[in-house]
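Below is one record:
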Amino acid sequence: MKKFLALLAFSSLLFVSCLSDDAQPPVFEVPTPPAINFTSGEADFSKFVSVGNSLTAGFSDNALFMEGQTNSFPNMMASSFAQVGGGAFTIPFMADNLGGATLGGQPILGNRLFLSFASGSPLPTPVSGTGSTEISSVLSGPFNNMGVPGAKSFHLLAPGYGNVAGVPIGAANPYYARMASSPNATVLGDAAGQAPTFFSLWIGNNDILSFATSGGLGVDQQGNFDPSTYGGTDITDPNVFAQTYNGILQTLTAGGAKGVIANIPDVTSIPYFTTVPHNPIPLDAATAGAVNTAYAAYNGGLAQLQQLGVISAEEVARRTISFSEGATNAAVIIDEDLTDLTSFNPALINMRQATADDLMVLVGLSFIGTLADPNNPASVNGVGVPLGDQWVLTPEEQASVSQALSAYNETIAAAAATFDLAFVDANAFLKELKAGGFPLNDGTTVTATFGTGGGFSLDGVHPSPRGYALLANKFLEEIENKYGATLPEVEPEAFTGVYIE
């Protein structure tokens, strides 16, 4: 309609310009667009509860803070639901917009990030100041937004997940501690206890994300059915995930509530893994020559073991280290999947240069190229000192992530059919965002490009407010499709793509 009216206005001007001075231009009546009758369809939004992790909470720029919580996609959805009978939507707000928090006066959570140019190039940097959120100050609930940053699927069922009293820092979730109905409550119990008429569930991202963002430091726990034995960066067994996920939905739908669920995006396609190249190291000819001389013994040792039949020519080629003059030298990394040669020669550690198949983590922006030892100019991280496992996700580690992702998403798709729920393909949504982005009515396009694309916040993992708005509309679209509702859309242009200091 907007395009039609614009053309109509242009043709009217053209017609007037051809008239004589005495002629009167015709009067065109612009039709009034029909009013939209918003309806809830088969859904009842009077008590909407949203369950999930940091993505549900409105986490962005590496922190949870008041403005980000206000711009969470469930809160945007609740604003739409309010037009068709939706009730109040309460949020367990942090105390300020810094995002940092203390426990017993001791800082345990850092502040949100902003784009600092202090170093001469833009780097995500924590804002200054001390956050005024005290974790031990428990809020009075219940809360409609039950998004708990850091939560994995099985955490939603864990009694005492928010009980930080008398336990070491990190042993319980500080975000849930502020909103739990009691020290031994469960996230699911607090959500279901509100008797929701409609719910959203987006959980499972952290069951693989923490493994990926740690550079694969954790363990793929496939075959281990006891999540109490898992480490914080481990991948959840797909059977554990399936049993947990279906159990959550059985509880949420027990009272007849309808809802919407979303699958898990490919975490390796987010800016956290697509921003730092594998070859970011500039060297002049003299430095490149000196570095190659330093690695000559390592390369020679590999060749000797090939001659002895210990390793193949292919592995020697993969492990041989060579630098050259130029700006695109590949970083040297540790790779635990290489053949262990240290029993033959302790100097032949599992290292090689990165390739385009390796994914460097975003925090490497401020690490690669720095000195491991300030007094040793040869100790450049990624050159003279190999990058540790936490700085790169290798192809083998990516395969573990991909395998778990496929299994989880099969479970979620099947659950949508079993429980007759609306389903959001968040994986396809992120692929589209990365491939070309989403054009907006103001002429801009939201993409997944770090820092400038407008879709992601500065932590490279969580969406920006504008990205959350696009997600909210995707959720609303699938709710309309499933339940025959007609709901107001969110206007992404009304939300920022990056917070400006």
